[in-house]
Amino acid sequence: MAILAYLVAASIAATSGGFAPDNEATLDVLRFGDAGALVAELNEDLRAADFNADDGAVFGRKTRHAVYAFQKHHELATSGKFTPFMWALLAMPVEPPERAEPSRIEVDLNKQVLYVVEDAQVVLVLPISSGSGSSYIGSNGKRQIATTPEGAFSFQRRIRGIRRAPLGTLYNPYYFRGGIAVHGSPSVPNYPCFARLRAGNDVGHGPAHRLSRRRAAHLRVQRGPR
């Protein structure tokens, strides 16, 4: 009922000319640190839509990452805040494109989003930060360019737990081309800035265990459309 009341209020305001999606002064906006029944409903709905949100009634770090993924998927500004008009978008299913591989990982570099697809159904959506195109000094002492390759790949190996690499700390990295990996991180910027693919805040842990060897046999990295 609380969500319905918000949507009705938004509709009334829109017909009177007083509502815009980014007008945070007229309607409550859910954000990091909030708590309560509406946050609990948001977390439940995000998880039901396969965005990796917190449990319970707190808008924590996982929920903020989930909102980032949701906003990136729908090509909205990545504010990390959940506004009333977004409830209708959250009710829309995340549908994968048809592929020969029914179970796979899809990365959309334009949207900066990773999709875990199982039996032709999206089961997890995570925000990513891909290669920035800038230069850096690699472990071999040579200058390299931070790019994320596009194409179809298979995961070659996985390192469980934390790996401290020359460019930073990787959590459960899944390598798919040489030293390039999909890996978890507690910090995922909303723009490309790495040599690897940082994804979500806990790849390979908790709900993101869906990045298993079987499901991760196929990886597709591309720049939309999906």
Describe the structure.
β2 and β3 form a beta hairpin. The chain has 4 helices and 12 strands. It has helices at 2-15, 37-48, 61-73, 86-90; strands at 104-108, 113-118, 121-129, 135-137, 143-145, 151-153, 157-158, 162-165, 168-177, 180-184, 197-199, 219-222. The strands form 2 sheets. Strands 1, 2, 3, 6, 7, 8, 9, 10, 11 and 12 form a 10-stranded mixed sheet that branches. Strands 4-5 form a two-stranded antiparallel sheet. It has 226 residues and is of the alpha+beta class. It folds into 2 domains: 2-90, Orthogonal Bundle (Muramoyl-pentapeptide Carboxypeptidase, domain 1); 104-222, Beta Barrel (L,D-transpeptidase catalytic domain-like).
List keywords for this structure.
two-stranded antiparallel sheet; L,D-transpeptidase catalytic domain-like; ten-stranded mixed β-sheet; single chain; 2 domains; 226 residues; Muramoyl-pentapeptide Carboxypeptidase, domain 1; alpha+beta; 4 helices
